[in-house]
UniProtKB/TrEMBL annotation:
InterPro entries: Metallo-B-lactamas, RibonucZ/Hydroxyglut_hydro, Sec-metab_biosynth-thioest, WH-like_DNA-bd_sf. PANTHER family: ENDORIBONUCLEASE LACTB2, METALLO-BETA-LACTAMASE SUPERFAMILY POTEIN. Residues 25-233 form the Metallo-beta-lactamase domain. It comes from Candidatus Anaerobutyricum stercoris. This is MBL fold metallo-hydrolase.
């Protein structure tokens, strides 16, 4: 499904379905101006996503062989099909920090280190193995790296007479870039701010306190004059950015408090056990019956919040041996 959502420059939204995933869809945005085009994000590396994207692009006369592809971040629902744009007449753009992290995920030992981190937080091995096997975050990534032109804060990409400015907004991922058309007050938000769901904030290997970084950058969004905020998933909204930023900050404040309550009752809990004591929208399922990949995301999110509380000196980490293995446990300070 393709929808024209803005004229001059013409901006289209292609609905790319993410079947079976709680995110439901990806909003792929296409900007056309003066015979040029740019595509923002792609969907998973699956046949279903590719057919939806390719069909949408051809409907509006854009070919993956002659365009610009802007990848906002390394999540598979955004970068998955980027390799399908690897043509001499198409430039793929990505934030420098994000691209370097992505390369380490694909070519280095980063994924192994992330798995090890989950073991340390008490994630049971059988559940971890199942989560790794079924995790869309890794199985729908591109099968190889591809050449990109890297962007840093303030760099611009032009599409005919339209200028897109890259804004560095890490937090959701180590180096997510969002894009701003300043003279039209249009912001392509990627997953930095979504209207119907709260973006997942997780613990990234080698990065401290991603939640604080995220919350600071959420407030930074309000420095920009935005009339048309365009999120990467689900519905556009009539809600103002100010209202939505306040709601998301309140959501994290509630979650931080819940964690303190769990640790009050269960001092010495692992990250996995803290996550199990929180309330999640798991479509009505109890924690023990939740799919392992959802537990994986929930534990990552819990760890990001625990790190925030550790930086506030409200929670401390105690390393312990349990069943012959070293694990992290947490206590109130
Ligand atoms: Zn994402």
């Amino acid at each position: 499904m393709v929808e024209l959502i803005h004229r001059s420059p013409d901006i289209y939204k292609i609905d790319v379905p993410l079947t079976g995933n709680p995110l439901k869809n990806l909003n792929c945005y296409v900007i056309k101006d003066g015979g040029e085009s740019a595509v923002i994000d792609t969907g998973f590396r699956t046949e279903e996503c590719w057919q939806a994207l390719k069909g949408g692009l051809s409907e509006i006369g854009v070919s993956p062989e002659h365009t610009k592809l802007l990848v906002t971040h390394l999540h598979s629902d955004h970068i998955g099909l980027a390799g399908y744009f690897n043509y001499p007449d198409t430039t793929i753009y990505m934030g420098k920090v994000e691209y370097e992290y992505y390369r380490r995920m694909k070519e280095g030992d980063l994924m192994g280190r992330i798995d090890q981190q989950y073991r340390l937080e008490g994630f049971p091995e059988d559940e971890l193995q199942d989560a790794i096997k079924t995790n869309p975050a890794s199985i729908y990534l591109p099968d190889a790296t591809f050449p990109v032109t890297t962007l840093q804060e303030g760099d611009t990409v032009t599409v005919g007479g339209t200028t897109l400015t890259a804004i560095f907004m890490p937090g959701h991922t180590p180096g997510q870039m969002i894009f701003y058309i300043a003279d039209k007050k249009i912001m392509f938000l990627a997953d930095h701010l979504l209207f119907d769901i709260t973006p997942n904030i997780t613990k990234w290997s080698g990065i401290d306190d991603s939640l604080r970084q995220y919350m600071n950058n959420l407030e930074r969004l309000l420095d920009f004059d935005v009339d048309l905020p365009l999120p990467a998933h689900r519905n556009l909204s009539n809600k103002t950015l100010e209202d939505r930023v306040a709601e998301i900050l309140a959501h994290h404040a509630v979650r931080l408090n819940q964690i303190l309550k769990v640790l009050e009752k269960q001092p010495g809990a692992t990250g996995y056990e803290v996550a199990g004591g929180l309330t999640w929208s798991m479509r009505g399922r109890a924690w023990k019956d939740a799919p392992n990949r959802q537990k994986w995301f929930a534990v990552g999110e819990t760890l990001a919040h625990i790190e925030y509380l550790m930086a506030e000196n409200k929670v401390c980490r105690v390393k312990k041996e349990r069943n012959g293995k070293m694990i992290h446990t947490y206590e109130l300070v």
